[in-house]
Each structure stands twice: as structure tokens, then as C-alpha cells.
Design goal:
The complex is a heterodimer of chains A (519) and B (104).
Chain A lengths: L5 H16 L2 H13 L6 H24 L23 H17 L3 H12 L9 H13 L3 H8 L4 H14 L19 H17 L4 H11 L9 H12 L7 H9 L10 H7 L7 H17 L3 H24 L3 H24 L3 H19 L8 H33 L6 H37 L4 H16 L7 H30 L1
Chain B lengths: L7 H12 L5 E2 H8 L3 H13 L3 E6 L8 E6 L1 H9 L1 H10 L10
Antiparallel strand pairs in B: 1-3, 2-3
Helix pairs in contact in B: 1-5
Classes of the chains: A mainly alpha (519), B alpha+beta (104).
Chain lengths: 519, 104
């Protein structure tokens, strides 16, 4: 046999190189494959044989680097983590350091930092950790007589502190009265005392801007959260005023202008606050539907034609209010509600007009209701569909938790290593596996959080981009969105606890699994 | 030591040994008989040897030619393989070492 051709020599050379770097337990098998080479007739088959051997040896070399080999003699019978073993392989330490260094390098990527910032900002331990900052800003602004900064701070404080500060800012500059629209209790449902304060501010706002429907709608929304709120005279009065209003201005443009004077959009780092900060409390679709049914029943049951016509006029006004909201509303939320409001009004108007003998108008109302229902059903869906949003937000949060757990484990092992416990099995396992898990979770996090980081950037560019706000906020609300009570902080923290514990448990179980496999 | 997972490839390798239980076999010879590439065959041989189902030895033939590694089924390997005779027969049929059912 001729085994001195170029191809044959290349095959032998390849196997020799692989043998040089292969761990001893695999090298024996590499030599076995080398021993077969001269007996393979075809040069190409010999090369194929050698390449198969190179692949096998490379796999074992990589495994030996990542997982220190446990020979039968080296493994003690105990399965506990804190027993002593032989000293660590230098290659293990090098691979561990390389993985940690690569993970830290990823932190330099702006997209990674944006994503991490979004997630970490949701890990609040108190409802508003920045309260002290806004208090100081408001206090300093008051000393300097800066009404705009006072208004800016007030919109970020809890309502008990925000209301008096906002009132003092408005006393200095009445053109800032619109800020009353954004003084919220950041919990739902708001406690009764804060609702009273908010209604007081909204009453002042409605006096300042009497032709605008928005303050009245907000008064109605704050009067009662119940489905039968329309039975409340205060709610009815507020809605009557809203329906009679000549304009619709949600003040969002003014707010964005004010925010831009203070640099990057505050709250972009904390999506939950951002979402709440721009939230317009409006009457619910359920309440409006109940109100329309009530008007329809009132009209159909009325003895006089005038009373029936009065009920029909109310429904026309409701439809008109929906149209104004559609024309001037600046957010998707208002667009959604306006369509619903118009559809509710027209669908309840149709039977009433029929009863009044106005067949043509009844037909027009019916057609309008059908058209709106059709549009409503085919409204362009946000690409961030909810189930996808929930799943990816949870994945991003889980990966972030995993990274944190890895860092904690590495820190613990690092301390033990420095204290001389380098031969403890715990240290060995953490250094062998956790850096790999860390790197994998960092890479996974970069990929999973990338669209969220892009959305955060879009939100910084345009704070009214509600399409971007939903995904950004979902990183904060992700777990809570699974329950529909997404404004209850206690649910939020409960879910964080569940995720954090699950992450640590996963890391622990992975370590145990590797431990048993190695043993 | 735990027995290796009996994949079809593992069974086909064992079937080769089963055909000549006491004989020593070369790696390339096994590769030709089973049709397995070196990257698939040798991990199987490694696992079988680790589980003491195979004996191994080195044989030097002529000067300047590397020694060859040879393999033989141990009694443990033989009994382990016999336990799953039906599967082994199927594997043997699959690789043409035994006639197909209903065949000659």
C-alpha cells in the first residue's frame, strides 16, 4: 500500500495535530485511529477517516477544557459541595475567565445596557425610589420661583405631595393649570382621600379650561370606577359637560414640550412610571355602554315624544364626543375609546330613532354603528401582540435574573477561592459551569432584549409613541400582565420573587445535574 | 459501570462482534462492516471499552507503521448483548448480517 501520498500525509498530519492537544483519555483513541490510516486503501477515504478522528478529538479537547475530567480515582464518594478535591486545572480557570470577560464586554454594548437598564428599573423595592429627588427638585425650584420646574417635579410625586406643590406652581403661573390633569395616585383603584384631592384639582382645571371635554371626562372617571357609575349624579353632570364641550385637548403636547426642557425624557428609564405619568383616566367602555343602555331605556320608556327626543339627543352628543376624541386624541388609548364610544352611541341610537319614526336616521345610525364595529375589529394590531409580549418580557426578565444569579455565585466562589478554598468542590463547579451559563444568558439577553432597547430608544425620541411604550412598560409589568391586575404593585413583587427564586433553583439544579453526570 | 445506551449504531457494532465472538477486530474493519464513519464508530468503541464490554490491545505489525488497536467482545459484552437478542437480531438484519424475516 502506498501511504506516502500528499493526501495521506495531510490526513496523518491532521491527526497528529489533534493528538497533540487532545486530553490523555482521548489521545489513546486518536492513536488507534492513526494506526488504521495505513490500512485504508483510498487516499480520500483515509482523509475522511482522519477528519472524523479530528472532530472526535476536538470535541473531547473542548469538553476537557469546559468540564474538568473526573477520573474514577479523583472523585470522592461524597456528593456534597463543600468537600475538598484535587487542585483546579489552569485551563478551567482560563476558560472561566474568558467567559466572564466576554460577558463583561457585552456590557459595553449600548443595546445591552439599554435592555439591562429597562429590566433593572423595574426591580423596585419601593413604589417610587426617586421621590426624595423630586421633592428636592420641587423645593429648590420653589426657592428660586421656578414654576415650570415645580410643575415638572409635581407630576412625579405622590398625589399627597404633588397636589399642594402643583397648586403653588399654578399660583405663580396660571398657564400651568393643565398639569392638574397629570397629578395621579399611581395605584389603581386610587384611595378615597387621593380621589378627593384629584377631583378638587380637576374641578379647578375645568374652571380654567371650561370648553375642553378632557377635564370633565377625567372628573367622570374619578367619580366612580363602577360599571353603574352613570347612576351617580356627579358622573352624569360631568358627562353632560363633556358632551356639551366645544373642544378636546388632552394636554399631552404641552406636557411633552415641558418635559423636553429638562433633557432626556424622565421616566424612560422607568417604564412603569412613564406609563402612569402619561395615563389619561377616562370613563371605561363598560360604564359608557351602561350609560347608553340607560339612555335608550329611558327614551323607549318615556311617555312623551320630547323625552324620547331628549334621550336621542344625549346619544348624539355621546357620538359627537367620540368623534372629537378621535379627531384630537393623541394616543392609541384615546383612539380605541373614541371608536368604542361612537359605536356604543350609534348602536343604542338606532332603536330609539326607529321608535321615534325616524327611519332614515335610524338606518344611518345603524350603518354608522356597523361601520365602526367593522373598523374596530380590523384596527391595525400592534406588532407587539400581548401573548408574544408577555412571553418575551418574561424571557428577558428570566435571563436577567439568571445573569444576576451567576454573578452572585461567581462572587461567592471568588471570595472562597481567595480565602484559600480553591480545592473545594463548590468553587470548582462554580468556576467550571457558571461562567458558561453566564455567557449564554448574556448572549441570550442581548438577543431577547434588543427589540425592547429599540422601543426604549423610540420612546426617548418621541414620548408620545405609545406603540413603543407598551413593549417598554411590559418589561416592568411583564409578570404582572399575566394577571390582569397589572397596577397592583404587590402582584408585581410577588412575581419577581417567584422568578428570582426559580432562576436560582434552575442554576442550582443545573449544577447538581452536572455534578452527578461528572461523578 | 452503567451500560451504554443501545442505539442502533451500537447494536450494529455489537452485532459485528457477535458474528465472531472470540475474534479480535480492527477499527477500520468494523467501520467497513457497519458502514459507520470513524467519528461515529470510535465514540461507540470508547463507551463499550469503558463499560468493560470490550477488551482492547495494541498490535505492532511492521517497522515504521503505527501499531494497530484491536478489539474483542468480553463475556460481559456478550451477555449484555444476548439479553437483547431480539433487538440485536433486528440490528443484524438491518446491517445484512442475518437474513430478513421470511427470507431465505
Amino acid at each position: 500500500m502506498n501511504w506516502n501520498t500528499h493526501l495521506r500525509r495531510a490526513a496523518i498530519g491532521l491527526l497528529h495535530v489533534a493528538l497533540r492537544i487532545a486530553p490523555e483519555h482521548a489521545a489513546e483513541w486518536g492513536r488507534a485511529m492513526l494506526g488504521e490510516l495505513p490500512h485504508i486503501e483510498s487516499d480520500w477515504s483515509a482523509l475522511g477517516w482522519a477528519l472524523g478522528g479530528v472532530g472526535l478529538l476536538a470535541k473531547h479537547t473542548l469538553l476537557a477544557l469546559l468540564i474538568p475530567r473526573q477520573s474514577a480515582h479523583a472523585v470522592p464518594s461524597e456528593t456534597k459541595f463543600f468537600v475538598k478535591e484535587g487542585s483546579m486545572r489552569k485551563s478551567t480557570l482560563i476558560v472561566a475567565a474568558a467567559c466572564v470577560a466576554a460577558s463583561l464586554l457585552l456590557l459595553l454594548a449600548p443595546t445591552f445596557r439599554d435592555g439591562l437598564n429597562l429590566v433593572v428599573s423595574g426591580w423596585r423595592v419601593s413604589p417610587d425610589p426617586q421621590t426624595a429627588r423630586w421633592q428636592k427638585l420641587g423645593h429648590d425650584a420653589e426657592i428660586h420661583g421656578d414654576a415650570a420646574t415645580m410643575a415638572y417635579a409635581a407630576m412625579r410625586l405622590p398625589i399627597d405631595e404633588a397636589a399642594p406643590l402643583a397648586q403653588r406652581a399654578v399660583a405663580r403661573d396660571p398657564s400651568l393649570t393643565w398639569i392638574y390633569c397629570f397629578i395621579h395616585a399611581n395605584v389603581f383603584p386610587a384611595p378615597p382621600e387621593s380621589r378627593a384631592r384629584r377631583l378638587e384639582l380637576l374641578a379647578a382645571l375645568s374652571k380654567w379650561d371650561p370648553d375642553n371635554a378632557v377635564p370633565y371626562l377625567q372628573i367622570a372617571a374619578n367619580t366612580s370606577y363602577q360599571m353603574d357609575a352613570y347612576k351617580d349624579p356627579q358622573w352624569l353632570d360631568a358627562m353632560q359637560h363633556a358632551m356639551a364641550s366645544k373642544s378636546y385637548d388632552s394636554y399631552l403636547t404641552r406636557r411633552v414640550e415641558l418635559e423636553r426642557r429638562f433633557g432626556p425624557t424622565p421616566g424612560a428609564g422607568n417604564p412603569f412610571d412613564n406609563l402612569i405619568g402619561y395615563w389619561l383616566q377616562l370613563p371605561s367602555i363598560g360604564t359608557l355602554n351602561g350609560y347608553a343602555s340607560f339612555l335608550q331605556q329611558q327614551g323607549e320608556g318615556a311617555a312623551s315624544r320630547d323625552a324620547r327626543q331628549q334621550a336621542a339627543r344625549q346619544l348624539w352628543s355621546l357620538a359627537n364626543l367620540g368623534a372629537m376624541m378621535r379627531l384630537h386624541g393623541e394616543t392609541g388609548e384615546q383612539e380605541f375609546l373614541s371608536s368604542a364610544m361612537q359605536e356604543i352611541a350609534f348602536s343604542h341610537l338606532q332603536p330609539l330613532l326607529t321608535a321615534l319614526g325616524q327611519a332614515q336616521e335610524a338606518q344611518a345610525a345603524d350603518n354608522a354603528a356597523r361601520l365602526l364595529a367593522k373598523q374596530f375589529g380590523s384596527m391595525p394590531r400592534n406588532a407587539w401582540d400581548f401573548p408574544f409580549l408577555r412571553a418575551t418580557a418574561l424571557a428577558v426578565n428570566f435571563l436577567a435574573d439568571l445573569m444576576l444569579a451567576c454573578f452572585v455565585l461567581l462572587a461567592a466562589a471568588g471570595i472562597m477561592f481567595a480565602l484559600g478554598g480553591r480545592t473545594w468542590r463548590f468553587v470548582r463547579y462554580v468556576f467550571a459551569y457558571v461562567p458558561v451559563v453566564l455567557l449564554a444568558s448574556c448572549v441570550g439577553f442581548l438577543g431577547a432584549s434588543y427589540p425592547y432597547a429599540q422601543a426604549a430608544q423610540a420612546l426617548r425620541d418621541n414620548p408620545l409613541d405609545f406603540g413603543a411604550m407598551l413593549p417598554v412598560a411590559s418589561l416592568d409589568l411583564g409578570p404582572a400582565l399575566l394577571t390582569n391586575w397589572y397596577l397592583f404593585p404587590k402582584d408585581l413583587y410577588l412575581w419577581w420573587a417567584v422568578i428570582a427564586v426559580a432562576s436560582v433553583a434552575c442554576v442550582w439544579l443545573s449544577l447538581r445535574a452536572f455534578q452527578h453526570r461528572a461523578a | 459501570m452503567k451500560s451504554p445506551r443501545m442505539s442502533l449504531q451500537t447494536l450494529s457494532v455489537l452485532a459485528c462482534f457477535f458474528a465472531r465472538p472470540s475474534g479480535w477486530r480492527y477499527g477500520y474493519e468494523l467501520s467497513r462492516e457497519t458502514g459507520l464513519k470513524s467519528g461515529t464508530l470510535y465514540p461507540i468503541l470508547m463507551r463499550l471499552a469503558k463499560c468493560k464490554m470490550l477488551d482492547t490491545r495494541w498490535v505492532t505489525s511492521e517497522k515504521g507503521v503505527p501499531p494497530r488497536h484491536m478489539y474483542r467482545l468480553t463475556s460481559k459484552g456478550f451477555s449484555a448483548f444476548s439479553k437483547d437478542l431480539n433487538r440485536s437480531a433486528a440490528a443484524a438484519r438491518a446491517i445484512g448480517l442475518a437474513p430478513a424475516e421470511g427470507g431465505a
